[in-house]
TrEMBL record:
Gene3D superfamilies: Clc chloride channel. Pfam families: Voltage_CLC. One of its GO terms (molecular function) is chloride channel activity. GO terms for cellular component: chloride channel complex. It is found in: Membrane. The chain crosses the membrane at residues 24-46, 115-135, 165-190, 197-217, 237-258, 270-290, 310-329, 341-359, 365-389, 401-419. Signal peptide: none annotated. Keywords: Chloride, Chloride channel, Ion channel, Ion transport, Membrane, Transmembrane, Transmembrane helix, Transport. This is Chloride channel core.
């Protein structure tokens, strides 16, 4: 049986004087530095590939695709299909074990992941998104951050509990560095990846995300991802937030279940070559008419937040954009789901805003899109706090929309969580794993906001 001293050395250090604190905090700093450098490099790689492939902007795939010929649309997407098929075969041979999702690794393997296979998948996803696949780019820096966390946990001979936290911190640091959202990245690491906002977890997550974001700003612009106007608060938008929250909750439940369907049906064997070719070839053909389908959806969301999408196009994209994401995922194209989910929420919010404005006009349609994006992020990630903070950091705004955003994010997450226990980041988990994770959460002795040293079996020490 481990001695009390051994148990203390395996726990998360809450002070610099705690046993093993130097090794732990040095690992946190190194994770932040390496993840920040990697996120910057991956972002620049995406921009370079996108610029070369589309012969246009490396930061705005929509503008580049609008200026490209129909033949280029199809050729670039078929190139993405060939690369995806070959990449999947190579990845299968990079590791003797199977690939593992970051969330599953944190909960069931103490954060351990096959390094080369994970890194290869990250790089492949960057090429796929740059070439137009309808997936998110945050998957790559998240995976790289998790790999670095594993490396430094091994080097520092850290405990499983420490490794589990640091892998979540590495993933959150990757998110923070990729999008320039240090606080949102830290909260994402805890609320979404680790699934617990315990006090002793906060400082490592904050430090890793802050360092990674600061490092990335050396190479990437320190600017909001979305430029939006200042929206005015009104009774109309507050009532809409309450009325519309169930709509976003049920839409998010459907979204998560379709993500699960897509993940469980990924191609095997020779189908790894056929499925990407069919899906991405079809996407290339349809994108000639609807270039908004290409990429992660960032440029489309910007248009929605500033009310630059007509109603007819909006309704078409509300169906086609998430469908493109699900089919890309189903065909085996690697990538993230953060921005695609945000864009789906913006599309649904703008559509619901059109209907509401017919009854109670006066609210800009971009405001509805923004709130819809936050609501779907909250419900699909089951992280309302991180969703609110991420939307504030992504837009560089704070007070102009915070009250209705908190309201709709909280209600949407509450309703969806009551029906669907999974988020988009743990859709791969089986029903047995979901039940096992819930038991693990209940068995963790610490309470939110209570230092471990003050809690034994869930009760304060006398």
């Amino acid at each position: 049986m481990p001695t009390p001293a051994a148990k203390n050395s395996e726990a998360i250090p809450t002070t610099l004087a705690s046993p093993g604190a130097l090794r732990f905090w040095l690992a946190v700093c190194l994770i932040g530095i390496t993840t920040g450098l990697a996120a910057a490099a991956l972002t620049r790689l995406l921009e370079l590939v996108q610029h070369i492939a589309w012969r246009g902007s490396g930061t705005n795939i929509l503008a580049a695709a609008r200026g490209a010929s129909a033949s280029r649309h199809i050729a670039v997407l078929l190139a993405a299909a060939i690369l995806t098929g070959l990449g999947q075969v190579v990845l299968k041979h990079l590791s003797s074990g199977n690939g593992i999702d970051t969330t599953a690794a944190i909960w069931f393997r103490a954060g351990r992941m096959p390094a080369w296979r994970t890194l290869g998948s990250a790089v492949l996803s960057i090429f796929a998104v740059a070439l137009g696949a309808s997936m998110g780019r945050e998957g790559a820096p998240k995976q790289v951050g998790a790999v670095f966390a594993n490396v430094f946990s091994d080097t520092g001979k850290l405990s499983d509990e420490q490794r589990r936290l640091l892998v979540a911190c590495g993933a959150g640091a990757g998110m923070g560095a990729a999008y320039g959202v240090p606080l949102g990245g830290a909260l994402f690491a805890l609320e979404v990846m680790r699934g617990k906002l315990a006090l002793r977890f906060v400082l490592p997550a904050l430090l890793a995300s802050l360092i990674a974001t600061g490092i990335s700003w050396v190479a990437l612009p320190n600017a909001p991802t979305y430029i939006i106007p200042s929206f005015s608060l009104s009774a109309s938008v507050l009532v809409w937030a309450v009325v519309a929250a169930p709509i976003f909750a049920f839409a998010s439940i459907l979204y998560v279940r379709l993500v699960r369907w897509a993940d469980r049906g990924k191609p095997q064997g020779w189908q790894r070559f056929i499925a990407p070719g069919v899906v991405l070839g079809l996407l290339g053909a349809v994108s000639v008419q609807y270039p908004e389908l290409l990429g992660n959806g960032k440029d489309l969301s910007q248009l929605l937040f500033t009310n630059q999408v007509g109603l007819r196009l909006l309704l078409v994209l509300l169906l086609l954009k998430p469908l493109a994401t699900f089919l890309c995922m189903r065909s085996g194209v690697p990538g993230g789901l953060f921005t695609p989910s945000l864009t789906f929420g913006a599309l649904l919010g703008a559509a619901a805003g059109h209907a509401w404005s017919a009854m109670w006009p006066g609210v800009p349609l971009g405001f509805f899109a923004l709130l819809g994006a936050g609501a779907v992020l909250s419900a699909t990630t089951q992280g309302p706090i991180s969703a609110v903070v991420l939307m504030a950091e992504l837009t560089g705004r704070d007070r102009s929309f915070i009250l209705p955003l908190i309201l709709i994010a909280a209600l949407s997450a509450l309703i969806s969580r009551s029906i669907e226990p999974r988020s988009i980041y743990d859709a791969r988990l089986s029903d047995e794993q979901i039940a096992s994770r819930q038991k693990m959460r209940e068995q963790e002795s610490d309470q939110i906001g209570v230092p471990q040293s003050l809690s034994v079996g869930g009760k304060p020490r006398s």
